[in-house]
Amino acid sequence: MLTFDNVSVTFTKRDGEPFTALENVSFEVPDGEFVALIGPSGCGKTTLLKIIAGLQKATSGIIAVDGSKITGPGPDRALVFQNFVLLPWYDIITNVAFGLEARGVGKTERLQRASAELARVGLTGFENHLPHELSGGMQQRVGIARALAVEPQTILMDEPFGALDALTRRVMQRDLAAIWSEESNDRTAVFVTHSMEEAVFLSDRIVLMNTRPGRVEEVIEVPFSRPRSDEVTRSQEYRDFVDYLSSRLENMQRSDMETTTGASA
């Protein structure tokens, strides 16, 4: 269980004034659940993800895994970035095995595990290629394989498909959904995205966040069973649900713009 208990983050701006990025964020993510975080730019989605990863500390409140407070990075969590962050001088299989090597896994085992994860993401045969020889979508597959190879309890994804073209992004969404369906029921995912369709297609629940300060507006159950076939995604019920989320987000964005304009008038 991933638990957020009144998590707040306050920064000090250059002028010395405090800025509250997150305020009293509370919700829970049960084991095995795929949760998407959506909200206007600046609502603290990435900040929240960094705190889960142990890369940033909350000013107040607690994020805990199975009751243990997160105080820094740990082997139970892995992060997939928007930018592929591959080591350009290493071949693909070495990139995937890098996290295993850092954890002291022997060469034979780590290469076997890396090879198996590359097969899962459809990259068998590319083990000895360098990152620049792969397309953007293929490089992101490598990033996902690298995260899965260390067998984390929680996988964190920060706009992993945001830099891809629309067609490649759709293919990657489907591939991730297929990989997730093969996973054991106890692995958790927290996925940051700006795309309503992506959030609905991939997640079990959606955490809708608002801004100024960043906070949880609503936690919404996705009312569609897995796997989400083309028939489901083309249904009117599915489209209406995506439109509802889009409308909520647009209203929050408009309200934020009006507040900003009024404050500066």
How is this structure best described in words?
This protein has 265 residues and is of the alpha/beta class. The chain is built from eight helices and ten strands. It has helices at residues 45-53, 92-102, 107-120, 136-149, 166-182, 196-202, 230-233, 236-264, and strands spanning 2-12, 18-29, 34-38, 60-65, 68-69, 77-80, 154-158, 188-192, 205-210, 215-221. The strands form two sheets. The protein has a six-stranded mixed beta sheet, with helices on both faces. Strand 7, helix 5 (166-182) and strand 8 form a beta-alpha-beta unit. Helix 2 crosses helix 3 (107-120), helix 2 (92-102) packs parallel to helix 4 (136-149) and helix 3 (107-120) packs across helix 4. The longest helix is centred in the last third of the chain and has 29 residues, at 236-264. The radius of gyration is 19 Å and the shape is globular. The N and C termini lie far apart (45 Å). The mean pLDDT is 89.
Entry keywords:
alpha/beta; 265 residues; globular
Order of helices and strands: EEEHEEEHHHEHEHEEHH
Instruction: Sum up the overall morphology in one term.
Output: globular
Unreliable residue runs:
none
**Measured on Cα atoms, how large is the radius of gyration?**
19 Å
Strands, total number: 10
Classify the beta-strand content into a percent band.
15-25%
Structural category is: alpha/beta
Mean pLDDT: 89
Our measurement of the CA-to-CA distance between the termini, rounded to an integer number of angstroms, reads 45 Å
- Report the total helices: 8
Summarize the structure.
Helix content is about 40%, strand content about 25%. It has about 260 residues and is an alpha/beta fold.
